[in-house]
Amino acid sequence: MDLVLRPGGMLRLMLVDEDGSGVPGAEVILEQWKEYRHRVKWKAFADGMGRVVWDGAPPDGELNLCVRGKGWCYTRDIRVESGESEHRIEMRQELRLRGSVIDAETKRPLAEFKVFPGYSTDEPCWERLDTRRGAEGGFEVIFSEKRNPWRFRVEAEGYLPFVSEPIAPGNNQPVEVSLRRLEPGTDIVGSVIGPDGAPASGAEVALLTLEHDVRLSLGGFIGSGEDPLIVITDASGTFRFPSPHEAHSVAVVRKDGFGIVRFGASREPMTVPLRPWGRIEGVVDPSARRRPIEALWLSDPAASEYRGRVHLDHAHSSRVNHGSSEFLAFGSGPRLGVSWHQRPAEGRSRRFLHHRRGVPAGRVLAEGGSTRTRSEADPDRA
Length: 382
What we know:
Layout: E1 9-16, E2 27-33, E3 36-37, E4 43-45, E5 51-57, E6 63-69, E7 72-80, E8 86-90, E9 95-103, E10 112-119, E11 132-135, E12 138-143, E13 150-155, E14 162-163, E15 175-179, E16 188-193, E17 204-209, E18 214-217, E19 220-221, E20 230-232, E21 238-241, E22 247-254, E23 257-262, E24 270-273, E25 278-283, E26 293-299, E27 310-312, E28 317-319, E29 327-333, E30 338-344, E31 350-355, E32 363-367, E33 370-372
Parallel strand pairs: 1-8, 9-15, 16-24, 18-27, 25-32
Antiparallel strand pairs: 1-5, 2-3, 2-4, 2-6, 6-7, 9-12, 10-11, 10-13, 13-14, 16-21, 17-20, 17-22, 18-19, 22-23, 25-29, 26-28, 26-30, 30-31, 32-33
């Protein structure tokens, strides 16, 4: 076998600040080439003039880059192609914003609270991994992503959360935040009933708000031990949340089932019934396997249509063998509207089955390019 090596392409970059001056020492990282994300490893540092040259770049296809540097924001999703022309990438300095938090009535500094940055207003955008804990009224929050607008959020037990107006880059003027106390009787209270009708103790309950999503794995929510908006029901199956004004639903998960309930302005105690996990079984028809299939997974197509949602983790997936009549099963599917996706061993994933709300309870067959489904909700529908 002869292996023929082609000459590499030329990638030229110029990293500049907002005034057009070079940014020496900044790091450039290749995130993706074509559909191959994190498969090709490459990174480089800018020279003293802010320039980066890669003479072994892939000669064809789009390159997706990320740029970062000490004291500078992450600049992501930079899409370029190799060639003789030089690409200019504008960077932005990170912002360290300082401020204070007081009680709106007493005007006294709060002893304990949390503050974290957020980027954008069109989707849940809070970077809780960058949470800073304030003490004795003082805080510092760091904006380190080049995404607009910059905002920050402050939370304290017993108070309504505060969300700032957009912060202009370079604005390092100290800010003062006044938090209002929660009114008595506004807590979100409820109980969970298991599939057997008994109180469901030990269930994970997530509060869904305009700014808070959760990711559902098999039998639990991912990161539940670190998320203050996920609690565990007590021995009587009850739960309680302080009431943020953006809350609209609660989702509950336990090994024996899943449930979700939407509520309105009323704060009457609610009951959340757990429904048993559904199951999907099927075979992959040869017509759907033009390339070897690496995995199949479920997703909820409605999750992208609202804020405060339940995402399905890829634990709701099944690996398949590379035979002619693979059998696959999703043994723990929540009763949501689902789409069924396949990921080829190489290439982009695609959706090849969609089912409306209610997980199919029977077999799902992809035969001759067509799909038939049979569900618990409509057993006679094909």
